[in-house]
Structures are given as C-alpha cells and as structure tokens.
Amino acid sequence: MQVKANGIDIEVETFGDKANPTIIFVMGFGAQLTGWPVEMMEGLVDRGFHVVRFDNRDVGLSQKFPELGQPNAGDVMAKMVAGETPDVPYTLTDMAADAVGVLDALGIDKAHIVGGSMGGMIVQLAAAGWPERFHSMTSVFSTTGNQELPPSTDEALAALLSRPENEERDTVVAHQMKVRKVIGSPGYPTPEDEARRRAEETFDRSYYPEGTTRQYAAIIADGDRRERIKSISCPVLVLHGVGDPLVRVEGGRDTAANIPGARLVEIEGWGHDLPVQLVPQLVDEIAAHCSAAGSKAAAAE
C-alpha cells in the first residue's frame, strides 16, 4: 500500500496484528523492501509482533526524485575531505524521517526499528534523533562512517557500484546474481536457481538504478556518526557477519563500541546478505532483543 510519509509517497507492507508490538524494517542501498525475506517477517509475526517493511525513497515502488539530478560521488567525497558541507539531493537524516513518517501514517506511536547496511545507518540516526519513537534498535551489517575502519574488499565495492552492460532483463538479472555471489555469505551460499528467482522478481517489481546515485551521495555526505550515536538511549543489538566483504565486521564492532550498552552478535560464515539458512537465528536474536526491550519499557512506565 502507498502512504504519505514525511511529505512523500512511500510503499509499505505490513504483516501480523497491529495490536501487537511493531518492528519496522529499513532496507539498504539500492535495495527494495523485498530484500527482507518473507520468512523473517512471518517468523517475527509468529513470535507475536506486528511487522512493517517499506521501500526507501528513490527505490522500489516509493517516490522517485529524477528532478534532483545525479550527484557526482567524487565531488561529494572531495567536499567532505575538505571539511565542507556537500550539496546533496537528500540526506540519511531525511531518510530516517521517512521511517518516522511511515509510523505516523500507520498511526503507530512507538516501535522497534531494524536496519540493514545503509538501513542500519538510517536507523542509527532515527534512534538518535527521535528517541521517543523507539523501544529498541537493531543494526544489521552496518557501520559508523569511521574512515579509519577497514574498507570493503576491492571486489565487493566494485560489484556494488558496477552497472550492467545494458538494461535488458536478462543482463540485469545476471549482473545482480554476480553481485550477490561476490558479497554474499561464504558459509551460506544461495543456490543459483534461488538467486535467479530473487533477481528476476526484483527486476520485475522495479528497476531504477538512477536512485542509487542519490542514495550513495547521502551515505558519503553523512560522514562519521560516532558522536551522534553515542546519544542513543534505547536498547541496541548489533548483528554482523564475520565473513562480510562489503561492510567488514569491524564496522559492527565500532557501532557497538560507540552506543552505550549495545550488544554485539557476530556470526561466522555470514556475508552481506540475508540467506534463508540464517533466518531462524536472526529471528531468534531480533525477537529476544525486542521482547526484552519491550518488557524493560513497560516496567519503566
């Protein structure tokens, strides 16, 4: 369904009974809401939660912003290095406000929030900027913007930022399968037929590569979040794969180290994807974290 959130049109899907505690999921760079496995959503519904996932701005079925143009990532980075404030189409804080706007549109006062990769950056800003709206936060294979951390492997970064040779369906699908293979979980590989099915469904739902340029500029322009996330007061869980080649495990460690009381869970063999084999463990971790945070909040009232 479409809702008006933070003044823009956002595509939203919900699972479960709205009377139950809500968990809202924020997806990563260039990825659609379908990147969160249905099995994960349904697993959390089975644990007694109401679950929300949505397309970020400029991706999927949410509002696109072609009128804002195509920023040059190199220029944005150069201004950041020079200590200047780059002019970008929108910021990660704007995207955090979108998540809060989705809750407003759904009539939800307070929720648990989970974000993966760029979505993890967004939920860090949401929890820091709107503390009254969140019972807990979970950051999944994300980082702090600390430039001293180990970077992505060359192969992983090249795969993420590369474009297919053309925009024909078969070419794009093959390219997305290659990207998944490069950044995916070494211990939990996705079978080729499943990877193809997911890539085809993603393409058929929406293919809009122009939006990723603006999202990438927002990531660069956000800079180092360490000082900002130190103010997060809700319970925080950090989930990260030891085998992640795109956002290295040190990013998760740095996130946990800079948020008071955060709990870090590292998973061997996990890369930068959400393989179905890991869904039960991820559901267990998120459900336990949200339940404990909800109990703590209720006791404090």
Would you give an account of this structure?
Helix 3 (92-106) crosses helix 4, helix 5 runs antiparallel to helix 6 and helix 6 (169-183) crosses helix 7. The chain contains 11 helices and 8 strands. The relative contact order is 0.17. With 301 residues, it is an alpha/beta fold. The two termini are 34 Å apart. The protein has a single domain (2-300), classed as Rossmann fold (3-Layer(aba) Sandwich), CATH 3.40.50.1820.
Outline the secondary-structure elements.
Layout: E1 2-5, E2 8-15, E3 22-26, H1 38-46, E4 50-54, H2 73-81, H3 92-106, E5 111-116, H4 118-129, E6 134-140, H5 154-161, H6 169-183, H7 192-205, H8 210-222, H9 226-229, E7 236-241, H10 249-257, E8 263-267, H11 279-300
Parallel strand pairs: 3-4, 3-5, 5-6, 6-7, 7-8
Antiparallel strand pairs: 1-2, 2-4
Helix pairs in contact: 1-11, 2-8, 3-4, 5-6, 6-7
